[in-house]
Amino acid sequence: MAKCHFSAMCIICTVVSIVSVSILVGLWTYQFLSFADQTRSRTEAPDSRCLPECPLPVSYDVTLWPRLKPTNEGLYIFTGNSTVVFKCVKETDLILIHANKLNLTADATLSALNGSPAPSITSTQTISKTQYLVFHLSEKLKAGEWYKLHTEFVGELADDLRGFYRSEYEVNGVKQIVATSQIRLTHTCGIFPCFDEPKTKPVFHITLLQERGTVTSSNAEEIEKLNTSVDGTDVTMSRFEWTGMMSSDQLTLIITDGTNVQPTKTKRKRKFTPM
Ligand SMILES: *[C@@H]1O[C@H](CO)[C@@H](O)[C@H](O)[C@H]1NC(C)=O
Ligand SMILES: *[C@@H]1O[C@H](CO)[C@@H](O)[C@H](O)[C@H]1NC(C)=O
Ligand SMILES: *[C@@H]1O[C@H](CO)[C@@H](O)[C@H](O)[C@H]1NC(C)=O
């Protein structure tokens, strides 16, 4: 009786073990297959953080013009343009660049630094999920060649502390108008389109257009300040020296009515040669 009982237990145990192992193998296979699926779609769709053919940016020349008064639609916006110089590492007919909630206001242009004609941009695609701007090219960029991509854009001055944002503050109980508020650039891809930068620290040249009478500072020294007018609006234009080599999230820009806030300065490398 005891033996029979023991055998019954044994059979139950064996059956349970076999079922468990089957379930494990099944789950593992399922996971393996869906992982394989994911990797496959990741290389196909422009979805990955950095494709092997990620271009290496060496410099960004950026002009930004934040509007401290709302548009007719009640939006606080900034406009700007950016020229990035990059090296093509692996030939590709696709340029992926990060741009969080930026709208292009003109067709982007691509040129080759060696003067030979560059492929033309046949279409532009925005992938809001991954915050990518994708430029499809007529031909492949050549590995080892240097290119220049120019974009013009508009973005919103959010108050959610990402990217270019605005804040209002009170002095002696009086809320200061937005024109006197402080704007700080922290989340670079919300400010201008930028590449993932796994291997390089590019340099930045910033020009800022702002309402007359406001004060600006950045990582680099201000080297020129002049009152001018752009599109019929009086502005002060500040140009900053090239920054030292740094990652884009170190870039800081502050526009204020004079409150003394200083971002960390970077030392400018005396000589900059793009590799
Ligand atoms: C960028 O925008 C500013 C202001 O509108 C303009 O003066 C400048 O020429 C533009 N830069 C380029 C390279 O188009
Ligand atoms: C960008 O385009 C989207 C969609 O057309 C629009 O909802 C948004 O307000 C635009 N942003 C700016 C800052 O113009
Ligand atoms: C520009 O204009 C502002 C206000 O009109 C004035 O305070 C400032 O001194 C001027 N700056 C230059 C460089 O002329």
Tell me the layout of helices and strands:
Blueprint: H1 2-44, E1 56-66, E2 77-87, E3 92-98, E4 103-104, E5 109-112, E6 121-127, E7 132-141, E8 146-156, E9 164-167, E10 170-171, E11 174-175, E12 182-185, E13 203-210, E14 215-218, E15 222-230, E16 233-240, E17 253-256
Parallel strand pairs: 1-13
Antiparallel strand pairs: 1-2, 2-8, 3-7, 4-8, 5-8, 6-7, 9-12, 10-11, 12-17, 13-16, 14-17, 15-16
The structure holds 2-acetamido-2-deoxy-beta-D-glucopyranose (3 copies).
Residues 63, 81, 83, 230 line the site of one 2-acetamido-2-deoxy-beta-D-glucopyranose.
Describe this entry's structure for a reader.
- With 275 residues, this protein is of the alpha+beta class.
- It has one domain: tricorn interacting facor f3 domain (Immunoglobulin-like).
- It is 16% helix and 39% strand.
- The chain is built from one helix and 17 strands.
- The radius of gyration is 27 Å and the shape is extended.
- Mean pLDDT is 76; it is low at 36-47, 176-186, 259-263 and 268-275.
- One 2-acetamido-2-deoxy-beta-D-glucopyranose is lined by residues 77, 103, 154-156.
